[in-house]
Amino acid sequence: MNPVTSVLVLEDTAPIRLGVCEAVAAHAELDLVAACETVRHALDYIEDLSQPLDVAIIDLSLPDGHGTDVVARLTEVRPNCVSLVFTVLADEASIFSALRAGARGYILKEASPEELVESIFHAETGGAPMSPEVARRVVESFRPDSVAERTGLTPREREILELLCHGTSYSEVADMLHIGRGTVHTHVKNIYRKLDVSSKAEATKVAIQRRLFIP
Description:
Elements: E1 5-10, H1 14-25, E2 30-36, H2 39-46, E3 55-58, E4 61-62, E5 65-66, H3 67-77, E6 82-87, H4 92-101, E7 105-108, H5 113-124, H6 132-140, H7 147-151, H8 155-165, H9 170-177, H10 181-195, H11 200-209
Parallel strand pairs: 1-2, 1-3, 3-6, 6-7
Antiparallel strand pairs: 4-5
């Protein structure tokens, strides 16, 4: 006999929460242990380690906070628990924020509750279920030609940023690219403005986080 998987649902919209809970309850292999409307409710359950929890289905936009915070806390206190995001948000910032926080999967609400349940089984066997649009965005984020779209950096600015992140000095950049030092400083100012940073260390951190190049 297969062990029963305990499931928490965090969703503030009542009809959606009900649909997901009914889909979970319809499977003998799954046990709905909590249906939460708020971040606080979910965290109260998660942080009570006497309560069982194997999988958490987490919405992102909630009345008292953000689901990514729940994912991060869950990853911290219950590292063996699977977090599945279930949301309408398909922007790159939301996707990567949730995945960095520890989400195992990212499912858009265009999926049916039954498809979401299938994602639970997929994730439990080591998979990383994602809606097609989310998977496409993840794959495209690794393409070099998507860097300009994500940052607004020009090819020359990306070139200079990569050199600086590898420890090249302004003078060395100028010599290598056959441009004046003043031009390098102008490019660097534009890079900092576009990345919303104020130092080379911050620019390096952002460049690595956003995968602007392979360090």
